[in-house]
Amino acid sequence: MNLQQINSVYFIGIGGIGMSALARYFMHIGKNVAGYDKTPTQLTDELIDSGMSIHFEDDVKLKKKS
Length: 66
Known about the structure:
Elements: E1 8-12, H1 17-28, E2 32-36, H2 42-49, E3 53-55
Parallel strand pairs: 1-2, 2-3
């Protein structure tokens, strides 16, 4: 796949040293970057300050179809 075809990237564990580096790279080349991490840290704060949307809640509620 060509990176030009990717518009948005979502990282699980975005607060890790490796994932955060990848997230910064994708943002640097103009992609929309978001992600999830279990715990807020100084690193996730920096990512948020750079414009990334990061979520810390893992409570996914599924709606039951009637």
